[in-house]
Specification:
alpha+beta; Adenine-n6-DNA-methyltransferase TaqI, Chain A, domain 2; six-stranded mixed β-sheet; 22 strands; single chain; Helix Hairpins
């Protein structure tokens, strides 16, 4: 018998009582608008986004759980300290003394999302109301049991965090060397704009009905990413040959660029097309026809030098866009073709060296996440106390 089984047999053999969230803590909402955040604010700002923002002021200074009331409905965060919150974020504070905040975090993360999605209101925006949340019930075993559950689940979350940190470190390692190749070496370094070194074409417009199961391959928005010379794991969409002949094409070696994305990180993602034949281009895609080494220009689009310039030129709030005119203004260091190939060879070798761990870590993280969720579900399932 495990320690958790022994504790349950000793402390709550008849079952575990369930209490509503409203009985366990104080529940209120933030009052801030989402646009009141500041990138350089001193305090944490919790909105309904998965990423925590910053803000210049704070309303709370305590242990708290934060729950998204729309967008990422039911997403739960835990925080201790000074913070503020968006008006659609539910803030849980002033917890009962017989409830560990960390235990309640795990309990809510387990099933709250399913409950809220089944009890959400649908209007112009999908959201949950206060009563729906405060009425949600969770099992509350004795404190010793709660603490043992927290100890077990924290080991899983720590392992996942370590794997994510390793993945991030590997990615930063590649970006460091990539940036090193494109930084200014000295005042004599020569730069030119991308517009001076090539030309841009915009992909053609088409409807979903234009696609076919066979025909000419077509790259369109959603298929582009930064791995050199490839697309996503799904093959390009196909359009009839007669339609494809009317669209702009990328020839082998041309750079293919996504001009629209949901955020700055995604806009202007690019890859060199290294297929054996030309390929058609659909909407929200640009092709850059240039005289660079294909790998060199592809790696440049991943560098901090390019990203910094691109971020200043992209437009839009909810959706980010960048025009070919804007990209044409971006400056690139000019090297001889032989030096470009040397840089490309070095970065390609490093990419291959790191590729094994970079590709395997996401799968391992997903496996650890699945294992954590399995044990969380088991640990938070109790015989219900019969109060009749």
């Amino acid at each position: 018998m495990s320690k958790i089984d022994e504790l349950i047999a000793e402390l709550c053999p008849a079952g575990v009582a369930r209490y509503s969230v409203g009985q366990l803590c104080k529940v209120e909402t933030g009052k801030r608008d989402a646009n009141e955040g500041s990138d350089y604010g001193q305090f944490h700002f919790f909105t309904t986004a998965k990423k925590t923002g910053r803000i210049e002021t704070y309303r709370w200074d305590c242990d708290a759980l934060l729950i998204a009331g729309n967008a990422n409905i039911g997403n739960v965060k835990q925080y201790s300290g000074k913070f503020d919150a968006y008006q659609r974020t539910y803030v849980l504070t002033h917890f009962r003394q017989d409830v560990e905040v960390r235990y309640l975090y795990f309990a809510l993360s387990d099933t709250l999302n399913f409950y809220l999605n089944a009890n959400k209101n649908v209007a112009a925006m999908t959201y949950i109301v206060l009563k729906t949340l405060v009425d949600f019930e969770v099992p509350v075993p004795p404190l010793e049991v709660q603490r043992e559950i927290v100890s077990i689940l924290d080991k899983f979350t720590q392992l996942e965090a370590e794997l994510e940190a390793e993945l991030s470190a590997r990615q930063r390692q590649f970006r460091y060397f990539c940036d090193l190749m494109f930084e200014t070496v000295d005042s004599e370094q020569q730069f030119s704009s991308l517009g001076e070194m090539g030309s841009f074409l915009k992909g053609g417009n088409f409807q979903k009905s234009d696609f076919s199961e066979s025909g000419e391959p077509c790259i369109h928005y959603g298929q582009i990413h930064t791995r050199l010379g490839t697309l996503t794991h799904t093959p390009p969409a196909h359009i009839p040959f007669e339609l494809g002949s009317k669209l702009p094409r990328a020839n082998p070696g041309d750079l293919v660029i996504a001009d629209t994305a949901e955020d700055l990180a995604g806009v202007a993602k690019a890859t060199a097309w290294l297929g054996d034949s030309p390929i058609s281009l659909g909407g929200h895609i640009l092709v850059y026809k240039h005289h660079f080494d294909p790998a060199y220009i592809s790696f440049f689009f991943q560098s901090s030098s390019f990203q910094a310039q691109k971020n200043m030129l992209a437009k839009g709030v909810k959706v980010k866009d960048i025009s070919s005119t804007a990209i044409a203004k971006i400056k690139i260091p000019i090297h001889s073709l032989s030096r470009q190939k040397q840089i490309s060879k070095g970065l390609s070798s490093l990419q291959v060296l790191l590729e094994g761990s970079v590709n395997s870590l996401p799968a391992e993280i997903a496996a650890r996440r699945q294992q954590y969720e399995y044990y969380r579900d088991k640990l938070l399932t109790f015989k219900e106390l019969d109060v009749a």
